[in-house]
Structure formats: structure tokens, C-alpha cells
Amino acid sequence: MQSNSQETLSTHPEMEPREEQKKSKSPFQLALRRFMKNKLAVISVFVLLTITTTCALAPLFTDLDPERTNLLLIEQGPSDEHILGTNGQGQDNFARLLYGGRISLIVGFSAMFFTLAIGVILGSISGYYGGKIDGVIMRAADIMLMLPFLVLALTIIAIIEELTIPLFITIIALTSWPNLTRIIRGTYLSLREQEFVLGARAIGASDIRIIFRHFIPNAIGPIIVNATLMMATYIIIEAGLSFIGFGIPQPTPSWGNMISEAMNVRILREHPEAWVPPGLAIFITVLSINFIGDGLRDAFDPKSKER
């Protein structure tokens, strides 16, 4: 009996750390749990995935070419062959809605990724090294922020003779990186004097290793949240610039182009199917992304507590 009791006492302390280890969760798991509690954000994820999947699989839903013109079908109403009718060039509105969604989403995602790369790199360098390097990068950001984004983007687009989608994405990214750079810099300044960073320096870790192994993982919350909100902003920017004729060039479809094509008093009154669907697509997509961004902000907020 004594040996059994001793074995029980000797094994019991070893079991406690294992149980605690099973119960403990990583910061990402805690953030995911908080995000899943936000019903509006979770629903928005499914809505955005549905829109993205539908646009990506556009050939399965229509076999019509969105850029093909037919002068015999100009401004036709909805029919069995053309669900949403046709535009002023005889192009199918439904096909343009699906393929235009591809372009709008690609522009939003690509411009966000490009801006994210510039902002993270410059913000990391500025926040980590400080001094003169920080001063140069921040003064460049101040100059960019002094110039109105819309005026700067329109000026560059007007100078370019032939605007392509990659060039359009590049222009958006190169004129909107300062805000994210400032956010990343501020996050890094708060992390630079933390004990784990000082410890990494003490053992001789390189600057690149410290930035990628310690700074970026601890700043992943603000990065993901701002990236999500930037994507929504860039979709609106693409739609706005295309609406005034400075965005994606015709005949390439985009949601902004479709609304621009319908800017005629007669079309607005007699053919709402030409402009209501792309308008709703922009509204629902941007709203879903914003809800996801709000959910991510709450999930990665270190002050939030689990209930």
C-alpha cells in the first residue's frame, strides 16, 4: 500500500504540467476563438468567400464573353439569354458583373499586398534602426501625406498613355503606403525595448532575424487588421476612378466601369438591372470586408478578455 501511494504521489506532480499545457492556448488560437464569437464577422467571411468563388468560377455560370459587342443587342432588357440585359455596346451585363468582380477583387487584393510589402519593409527599417534612417523615411511619408491622394493618383494616371491593370495597382500602392508605414513604425518602437528583443540582441541575433522572428510575429495583429481594411478601401478607389473614367480601361469589365456605363438618365430610370447589381456587389463586398476587419481588430486586441 505504501509503494502504491508513493507512486501516486510521485506521478501526480508530473501530470499537472501536462494538463496545464493542454489547457494553455497560443495567442493565435485565442484570437481565433474571439473572432469566432463575432457572428457578424463570421457571416461576412462566408459572404466574401461566396462572392469570390462565384467570380472566380464565372465560366461555370455564363458562357458569354464580357467584352464581345453586339450592335443588334444594345441596351436590351433582361431575357432568358441575357439575365441582366445588355449595355450600350451590346455586352452582356451578367457576364460583365462576374468577370468585373474578378478585376475589382484582384485590384483590391494585389494593391493591398503591394502596399503591405512596402509598408512593412519601410516601417520595420524605420522603427528598428531609428535615427537618420527613421528621419528620412518619415519625412518621405510626410511629403506623401501632404499631397492629396486622389489628385496625385489622377495626375499620374493622366500622364500615362496606356493604363494597364498591373500599372494601375502599382500607382495605388505607391501613393498610399505612408499610413501603414507609420502604424508599423509605431508598433516597432513599442517593441524595440522589450526584454525578449534585448535578450535576442544580447545573444548575438542578427537584425534580420530579430525583425522576422520577434518583431513581425508580435505586430501581426495590426498588420492583418490594416491589410483587411486597405483591401476594402482599394476596391472603392478602383470603382471611383473607373466611374470617372480614370480607372480600368474599357472594354475590360469592372464593377466601377459597369456603373459608369449606366450613368445616363434614361438607363437609370428604365434599366436598373444595369447598375443596381454592380452597386450592390461593391456595397456588400466592402461591408463584409469592413466587418471582418472589425472582428479581427477585436480578436487581436490584447486588452480583450475571454468570457
| Low-confidence parts | 5-12
CATH H-level superfamily = MetI-like
Specify the structural class.
mainly alpha
What percentage of the residues does DSSP assign to strands (E)?
under 5%
Radius of gyration from the alpha-carbon trace, in angstroms? 26 Å
Number of discrete domains: 1
Treating each run of at least 4 consecutive H or I residues as one helix, how many helices? Answer: 15
The name of the CATH topology is MetI-like fold
CATH architect. name = Orthogonal Bundle
SSE succession: HHHHHHHHHHHHHHH
Termini gap: 44 Å
Shape: elongated
> What percent of residues adopt helix (DSSP H or I)?
over 70%
What is the name of the CATH class?
Mainly Alpha
Q: In this structure, how is the largest beta sheet organized?
A: none
Write down the overall mean pLDDT. 83
The total of beta strands comes to: 0
Structural overview:
- The chain has 15 helices and no strands.
- By secondary structure, the protein is mainly α.
- The chain has a single domain (26-62, 84-299), classed as Orthogonal Bundle (MetI-like fold).
- Helix 2 packs across helix 15, helix 12 (220-243) packs parallel to helix 13 and helix 13 packs antiparallel against helix 15.
